[in-house]
């Protein structure tokens, strides 16, 4: 028996409302370019809109002119989608709540997640959406996941409840030391500010 190795999220498809509401939300609120449009090949009565969330991957939305926006809380049953999160820069994050509230959107947060900051709001159909801003940049050649797994190991070793910035800083230092070479025989911390 062997695994089927995934290599990233290909796309996420959501059931949307009508075409214009979907375009207005995904491109007009979240700034995702509308990049592709065709019928839903499994249901020709629906449209299938494609948006770029910023990393070249895709968020796709099935639309129908029979479905109008109705903001209601979606089921939170086992197996249901709880929320969908999108990465934003710190600069964008600092203005996101204000920009959403200017549209009359109720925003929850910001929430301190230790390794990131988040705000939450609902799309026009009630889907919970998170805007997340990492508190760190991974070292060259590393991913956010590389930093997170190393920070997790350091958190567990210290007996801390959740990941905090001290774990992130330690993780980044450890990753740089492992991945980047140095001519120094001793790469430990030093104090060049000792008294003369």
UniProtKB/TrEMBL annotation:
Q: Where is the VOC domain?
A: 8-134
Which top-rank group of organisms is this from?
A: Bacteria
Note the InterPro entries from the entry: Extradiol_RC_dioxygenase, Glyas_Bleomycin-R_OHBP_Dase, Glyas_Fos-R_dOase_dom, VOC_core
| A Pfam entry, by short name | Glyoxalase
What name appears for this protein in its UniProt entry? VOC family protein
Which source organism?
Albidovulum sediminis
């Amino acid at each position: 028996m062997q695994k089927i190795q995934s290599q990233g999220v290909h796309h996420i498809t959501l059931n949307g409302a009508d075409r214009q509401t979907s375009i207005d939300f995904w491109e007009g609120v979240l700034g995702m370019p509308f990049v592709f449009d065709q019928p839903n090949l499994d249901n020709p009565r629906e449209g299938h809109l494609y948006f770029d969330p910023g990393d070249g991957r895709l968020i796709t939305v099935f639309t129908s002119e029979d479905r109008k926006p109705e903001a209601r809380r979606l089921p939170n049953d086992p197996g249901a989608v709880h929320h969908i999160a999108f990465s934003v820069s710190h600069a964008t994050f600092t203005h996101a709540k204000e920009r959403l509230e200017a549209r009359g959107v109720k925003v929850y947060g910001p929430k301190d997640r230790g390794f990131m900051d988040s705000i939450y709001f609902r799309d026009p159909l009630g889907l919970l959406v998170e805007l997340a801003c990492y508190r760190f940049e991974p070292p060259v050649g590393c991913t956010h996941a590389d930093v997170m797994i190393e920070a997790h190991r350091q958190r567990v070793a210290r007996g801390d409840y959740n990941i905090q910035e001290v774990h992130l800083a330690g993780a980044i230092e450890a990753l740089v030391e492992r991945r980047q070479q140095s001519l120094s025989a001793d790469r430990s911390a030093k104090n060049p500010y000792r008294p003369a």
